[in-house]
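User: Structure please.
Assistant: Input sequence and predicted structure:
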Amino acid sequence: MDEKHAEASTTNEDGDAIDPSTIETDVNTHFVCFTEVNGCIYELDGRKASPINHGPSSPESLLSDACKVIKGFMERDEGEHRFTIVALAPAVED
C-alpha cells in the first residue's frame, strides 16, 4: 500500500514523475480517502509522506470509523466549513 500511495502522489496522470518541491504547500482543499486494510483504518492523503493508521476497523465498521476520524478533523478545525464527505459503498438491502 505504501508503494502505491507514493507512486500516486508523486506522478501525474501520464505517469511522469512530479518534483514534490513544486507542489503548492498551502492548500486548503484537497481529497483524502479512508480504507480498511488488515483490520485497521488508514487515511490516504497525497500531501502526507505515508498512509496514516487511525486504529482498528473492519469492512463492516469502516464508514462509522471514518466518520469518527472526520468528526475529529471538524472539531480540530472548528471554524472551517469546507468539509464535503462522499461515501462509495454498496446499497443497503432492506
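The first helix runs from residue 2 to 9.
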